[in-house]
Structure formats: C-alpha cells, structure tokens
Specification:
RNaseH-like_sf; 68% helix; 287 residues
Amino acid sequence: MAGHVSGVSTRITSLCKKAFYIHCNAHSLDLALQDLTRTSSSVSIALNMTNDIVNFMRESPKRLNLLDTLSGLDSYTKLKPLCPTRWTVRSSFLNVLLINYALVKNALTEINLEGGRVAPKANVEQFILSTANGTQDCDDAINIIDIDEFLTDDINVDRLNLELMMLPDYFSSINKEKKLGLKKITKISTVCELLNAQQLGKTMFYEYCKLITLYLTVPVTTATAERSFSVLNRIKTYLRCTMSQQRLNHVIIPHIHKDKLDLLDLNSVCSDFISKNENRKTFFGAV
C-alpha cells in the first residue's frame, strides 16, 4: 500500500499532488500494543500463565470433563486458545477465562489435591495472586484521563452542552422559515446546511460547529475495500466453505454496503427478478 515505486499511495499522489499518506490506525495501534506488551514483564507473565492454564485444561479430555462436572447444570463458555498473532482474539480469550474464573480455580484445586505428575502445573495460589496483582498494576499504570479533561483545549464542554440543548429548537425554526420540509435529520450534510442558513447559527453554536469541523477533517485510516477481510472472517461458516467463489462475492458485497442495501425496495427487486423469466412467472405467479 505504501510502496514508493508502485504502491497505492504513490499512484494516488501522482494524480493528486496534495494527497498525503495516512497510516492505518488499527495497524499502528496493534504494533504499539505489541511493543508495549514486550516491554512490560507483568503483562508478558500474565499472558504466558493464562495461556499455560488454558492449554493445560484443554489438552486433556479428563480435565474438560472435570469442568463439566463442577459446572453442574449451569452451562459455561468453553475456554479458547490464545492466538499468537491477533490481539482482538486475545481479548476474547481473556474474557472467557475471567468469566470462568471461579470454575477454573475449583478445577485446578481439585487437580492439585489429587496430586500426580500434573499437580505442579496447577499452581492455584500463584495464578490467583498474579491475576489480581496484574489487574491492579494495569489499572494504576493506565490512569486514564477523563475525556472532559483531555478535550479542554479543543472543546468547551460546558458551552457545548448548552448548545446541544438549544440545537433542536434552532433547527426547527430554520426548517419552518426556509420551508425545507425536513422531518428527520439523518445526514451530516443536512446539519451543515442548516447551520450555514444564517450567520447567527455559526456564532450561536460555535463549539458545535468546531466539533463538526473536527469530525469532517479526521483522516480516514481504513478504506472500504479493506473491510472485506473482516467481513470474510465474520461469515466464515460451513455455508461459506461449501459455496462457490461467485456466490461468496455476491454475499460479501451487500454485507459491506448494508447502508445502501437497506434503501432497496424488496418488493420491486422480487418483481424485477420474476418478470425476467417465463418459468419464474409460472412458478411465482404474475406480478
């Protein structure tokens, strides 16, 4: 994508000199998280320990049966393996372990009491202390700043809240005065049109206009075509594995462009489909 010889960014720049390359935000965040994890021994130890515990439970049908027995009549979410490359999957892996924390703890205690070769692997106390201390260390280290404090220099939040309270009445009055006939605002372009209808709008809703300007100038970091990879992962089912490539493409396109698909009239689509074939007319009936 970013190749200096024949990459997409180079080709676009050759057509539009003012265009500039923007790194994929998700990719940059993923790389930053990986580097952060490598430099934090607490995070590395916690991930390695949880991975060992999950693998220890999953690699033995006997231990999985023990989980089923201890859960009783209550169903529980199956433990997932730790993905070595995809961080989004790691979050679900940790969430499942936290949900089943009490169940896994009881199972490890049971295995530890039984003794044997596998007993040293089930170090319950170390697991509990490391998990608790690791969570507290992360909370203390992050110390997330409140969004209001973070945006103090950019947006006056108090004034913005007042403007938001006045905004519906202003839009309603402009709609009646200009006879626009708007019943519901669904596009950002409509909001800009209403604010530009009078100079008073920009002055009265200064912070709101500033917020819209920031929204409209946020660099786009993901192209529509790239979303097809995520879509393919979501529909990776038995149906996908047994369908042809042509049908798979046809399924992906409406899934990606759902906003346009929702605007279609299904009755007219069905009528058009039936009317193009005599056998369809006979089978479905005249439309």
